[in-house]
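Notes, Module 5: Reading structure tokens.

Key idea: the token line is not a picture. It is a compressed description, and you learn to read it the same way you learned to read a sequence, by spotting repeated patterns. We will look at two proteins. The first is printed below with its tokens.
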Amino acid sequence: MLGFFSVSRSGYYRFIKRMSQPEKDASLAEKIRQQQDRCFPTYGYRRMWQWLKRSEGIYHNPKTILRVMKKYGLLAEIRRRRKWKQIEQQIHKYKNLLNRNFHAEAPNRKWVTDISYIQTKQGVLYLSMIRDLYDNSIVAYKTGTQQTVNLVLDTIRLSMKREKKRVAEELQLHSDQGAQYASQAYFELTKQYGITPSMSRRGNPYDNAMAENFFSILKTECIYWPKPATFFEVNEMIDRYIYFYNHERIQLKTGNAPLARRLST
């Protein structure tokens, strides 16, 4: 057989020896697999490289991590783009005070908010959230089976209940031009809390890119894998993921989870 396949005797014995030895990257791949199981799986090779270095004391070139993740099928899910929709009905319209300046010097100075929908076999579940631009953490969120102004108002009330003592005197809350944010009830509640509303320009979804960005992350890393069947199931998934996102998920820019920065200030 060796002669037929043109294989040398020494080459055959080297192959037999390799078969009895563990694969070179097997232990590293197993650690990566375990972390992907814990994080939904969401980590790309750069974030995985940071996690291995910080949490496990494992130092490899990022390209090595990418090679191993490709080899063992451990790459993260790819995000889907969300189409932007304009809701025409408006009572109040606000200036674009944020003006795509997504940097905040301290917590609770610049918040962004939006509503997104999640398809389940039971129907559509709507998610309203508020994100702080200081550390990109999720301040508060609410879900409901109807896209009403009360869903938005309840999210604001919850955020103020949690952050009331730490909210800056000049707090901006930026939204798109959705009907809920242009309503009289929204105007009155923001005035009651001393919040200054800011609103995206017409036809400019990138003005609220940081809110859109979170929904993209959430749906890719949590909702699309696996797809939820019921409202109860998706609510549990959202609760678990947002806790993970705020307290554990590594941000590439800082190397830490969002709330780690807040706790250190």
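Here is the second protein, with the sequence above and the tokens below, as before.
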Amino acid sequence: MDSRDLTDCVPESSGELVYKVLTEEDVLLKKLKQIEPVVKQVVQSGGALFFAEVNKRGNLTFRSTQLGKRLLTALQNGSGEFHCYFPLHDLNPYVALLFECAERFDSILVLSSTTRLAPSEVEKEVEMLNGLVDLLRLDASSYEFKKLTRRFVRAENKRAASLDKYINALFEKHSRLVVIRIDLSYRFGFSLDRTNLHSGLAQVTADWAKLRQDLHKGQPIKEMLGFACKLEYGHLKGFHFHLLIFYSGAKYREDIVLTNLIGEHWAQSITGGRGMYYNCNKKKSQYQYPGIGVINWFDKELVSNLKSKVAAYLVKTDYWLRLSTESGRSFFRGNMPKFGGSIRGRPRSV
């Protein structure tokens, strides 16, 4: 939503959260986003990226193009950290391709610092790295890889289109919405067992099912109109949800109060004190692209921000890092509203 990650939080009073500095996970995710465009450029380029040249002393030295240097940086980030911090996830296809191809070579040489190469090692290093580049290009051109990348992009686009249509439908039936954005997680002192993540996932899934059931029943707030939710996992943050909830603007106005009610219900009733939450609506005035709170259908800028910034936050991360299909569903959305009777005083389009 803005330059701050809404999941970068620490406990405040009760179950509420406040911002904190970037964690190691955020740094890793930033690295992940930087790797993908480098690999894309490599597979679309031609020719060698690494060379052996004779210096003034007559010794062989290692040289690389600018793109080659960026590839070396991506390689040195390594896959080990990603698998440690995000063990239940599928990596971006281009990032996974780089790590998989690198593993087929001598990892010590591929990941070694080229600035410390002895003259006798230069030719072997150049041959190996250019071989890696050739392998990347070959595998990226395969039907299987192209099918995989299309599936990744298609999954994100499908969710984005579905959520956009859902928001449109809510505005078609209700001229004013109260849009709540809340992050739900677990207290650090009550973390789920990280040695058995699938068992922890089962508990988290059960907690979410209970919360969703309560929201539909009107607990703690009556007459929820709809919701969208994204489940994520991080080594430090554990399991956490990014949740959008919609209520009628004709019945409610105090979005911050409503968000706190839901957060406390999660923290106390659903998780028995193990949960905590962050009230995004409390800081909505600080966002560069505001799109939560009370929104009228004719507030074109707010509606646009809601769909292109706030809602997109729940789906776009899928392209970089997503929970694997073995972990079950990670994105949830309410049913499309029914249009029985008249629509409240506005055309059926947003």
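Summary for the second protein:
- The first strand starts at residue 9 and ends at 11.
- DSSP finds eleven helices and twelve strands in the chain.
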